[in-house]
Amino acid sequence: MARILTQMKTAGINPLKSSQPLGAALAFLGIDGALPILHGSQGCTSFALVLLVRHFKHMVPLQTTAMDQIATVVGGADFLEKALVKLKARTWPRLIGICTTAVAETRDEDIAGDIFFNAKGASPRERTDTEVVLARTPDFAGALEEGWSKAVTAMIEAITRPGMQDRDPAKVVILPGSNTTVADVEHLRETVESFGLSPLILPDVSGGPDEAVRERWIPIARGGAKVEHIRDLGAATQCIAVGEQMRRPAEALQGLTGVPYVMFESLTGLNNADRFAWLLAAISRDNVPTAVRRGRIQLQEAMLSGHFHLAGKKIAIGCEPDQLFQFAQFLIGMGAAIIAAVTTTGHSKVLQLVPADTVQVGDLGDLEELAADADLLVTHSHGRQAAERLAVPLMRVGFPLFDRIGSQHKLNILYRGTRDMIYDVANMVQATDDVPPARAPAEPVFMS
């Protein structure tokens, strides 16, 4: 069991984490027709929007209530009301996701009461056409994955129809964590469908990349889970939660509708992929498809090849808790050693399962200090300067990834994704091992 070391510094050096409101906004973007709103100052939204655009490489729909200094003191209810009315009239979103920031939370406002009052005063058409969901996500607590978890929980509690419903034996709810990529979500859907099952993925971020090629800008999210499907989650026969961060939404769904859930701390690695395939086979009461079996054989071959390059390598990882566990478990399984593990928040129970002696809650400055003897650095794009100073390769994972293209289409889960990651990491290490040592400068030759 890993020992969790809390942050003791008074200032962050090259911060590792992103805020809760940003994580909640990401989750809301996985809903078709959704529009996230950051309830706070203009600067909070501008900073989040910059990170989102750099990460996804296209425009992202994100709005703000634009609270000023007066609203910070007397309250932002009027700003929230004006934002809701204007955005409903201008964009007609299917869902408005409100993510609170520190500016609103420090006053301990009754934001839920303000929303209820505004909804009662809206016209019948506005009430029926737009769902308004509140996620309490102050910047001063938690990190990105906690904001994601709160947003998904809030959507289930606000939209899903409570009570027992007629179960559809082919319907499966999947709750992926914030560390899943577009490729991960698409592969999850394809795998579940190959068993003859019908998956409902919440949130579904796989529709986002289409925004870059649309003929005109649409100021709401397109693609993803539909509000109508969220309302009928109780008709599913099983819920699958991926990551400890999704335990809370799964429990909320079970409490509302009675749908049982199964937890997967990770879907990366042979054992985790096996367990997932066995579960789907049990739900569908059918054999594992041939394509899935072939993927397992290919992964076994990749593990044999990659082990020669990764065994004994020293790895330093800096990620959100669920992703830290995901990659630490994967690399340990390939024979590597985790010499440094740094994360963003110490509240997740999965940190105790990380295969390392200690887990430091800190920043990229802590990671660089602990990774002095590392052979590989694993973190997001802000770790590139540390990797350069340490003269080690950087495996880019997490959020944000802005100095490489195609990051959202890299697969990290199940048999195929684990196979691809083995090849990627092994090639990084092999390329470093093949670099010849620097030559000593030649002695000068003096001509007489």
UniProtKB/TrEMBL annotation:
Family per record: Belongs to the NifD/NifK/NifE/NifN family.
Source organism of the structure: Rhizobium leguminosarum bv. trifolii
Record keywords: Nitrogen fixation
Source organism, top-level taxon: Bacteria
Protein name from the UniProt record: Nitrogenase iron-molybdenum cofactor biosynthesis protein NifN
Main function: This protein may play a role in the biosynthesis of the prosthetic group of nitrogenase (FeMo cofactor).
GO biological process, one term: protein-containing complex assembly
Domain Nitrogenase/oxidoreductase component: 19-429
Pathways involved: Cofactor biosynthesis; Fe-Mo cofactor biosynthesis
Lineage: Bacteria, Pseudomonadati, Pseudomonadota, Alphaproteobacteria, Hyphomicrobiales
Record keyword rRNA-binding present: no
PANTHER family xref list: LIGHT-INDEPENDENT PROTOCHLOROPHYLLIDE REDUCTASE SUBUNIT B
MF annotations from Gene Ontology: nitrogenase activity
